[in-house]
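User: Can you help me understand a structure? I only have the sequence.
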Amino acid sequence: MHIERYPILGILSLTPVKHGDARGFFSEVYRREIASAAGLPVDFVQENHVFSAQRGVLRGLHFQRPPRAQGKLVRCIRGAILDVAVDIRTGSPTFGRHVAVELSSANWTQLWVPEGFAHGYAVLEAPCEVLYKVTDYWAPSSELGLAWDDPDLGIDWHLGSDEVILSDKDRVHPRLSGLAPVFQFSEKTSS
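Assistant: Let's start by predicting it. Here is the structure, written out as tokens:
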């Protein structure tokens, strides 16, 4: 498995090897010892499968506040997405900065998004299916969000504003400047 680290502490991508022949392929997409050595938690509690029928569907930017905060290991098994993680850890040297990575069925890359980040993605190629493992259960009462189009974040979603398809919930999230502190940066916990 190829592992790539990014300038924002805690974010990394994992690209599993595909072994293929005329029948198809085999790929070990998660292996506990590799995840552990890379600094990922090894105890995921839930896996989610999301289907999007159209290009332009944008889901996010979401996170859960402590004590129900979630780390996410995200992969796209059909189509393509632009996966985005925004650092919202107070005191972080990269607070308000983001990582954007294309995940697709073709490149087979996965993105690790630890606690302390708002996460979202835009569908670039549809139909699209995304799977992601999480470190804590979905807790609707702990859910918060960040405005996907906050100009201070400067995210290029690779879509025109007229192409974006949002849920009602994702239309009303605050900008980063209006978000009360939720996470505190610590180098010890940001492997």
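Now, to help you interpret it: The first helix runs from residue 32 to 38. The mean pLDDT is 94. Let me know which part you'd like to focus on.
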